[in-house]
Write a structure and sequence with these properties.
Layout: H1 10-20, E1 27-33, E2 52-55, H2 58-70, E3 74-78, E4 89-95, H3 96-101, H4 103-112, E5 115-118, H5 122-127, H6 129-139
Parallel strand pairs: 2-3
Antiparallel strand pairs: 1-4, 1-5, 2-4
Helix pairs in contact: 1-6
Length: about 140
């Protein structure tokens, strides 16, 4: 019998830590491309709901963070979208309960999306572990 070896996988560990805190809601990570006037097409957050967004660069956060906050989004920080390469991206974490309770709002946000990743799929959580950690902190409050 051979000994089983295990590799340390930092992203998987980070994802398990974010999920294990209980702070990260079930939902979807919605990736929206960033251009000069992209926030004009983003619908305001439904009243009384929490939707977080992380932005791909400090420049994008400085330019567009205030507009997103005015729309009701909680801006949780800056970090690259691992699926977007160098393209500017905003990653919105939308809890399932918000998408279900506000289908027109959900459709309007998804219509602007380049990608939508369900957090029900483990590999998505691992690939986006760093970004999800930023979002989990906002839901832990």
């Amino acid at each position: 019998m051979t000994a089983r070896t295990t590799r340390t996988r930092p992203r998987a560990t980070a994802y398990r830590a974010a999920r294990g805190s209980g702070a990260l809601p079930a939902g979807a990570l919605v990736a929206v491309g960033v251009d000069a006037r992209w926030t004009d097409d983003i619908p305001p957050v439904p009243a009384g709901r929490t939707v977080t967004v992380s932005l791909s660069s400090a420049r994008v956060a400085e330019r567009d963070g205030p507009a997103l906050a005015a729309l009701g989004y909680r801006v949780v920080g800056v970090g690259a979208d691992p699926a977007a390469g160098d393209a500017g991206t905003a990653l919105f974490l939308v809890p399932d309960e918000v998408a279900t309770a506000h289908p027109a709002w959900w459709r309007a946000l998804v219509a602007r999306a380049e990608r939508v990743h369900s957090l029900a799929h483990g590999p998505v959580g691992v690939a986006f572990a760093e970004a999800l950690g930023r979002h989990a902190v906002a839901f832990d409050r």
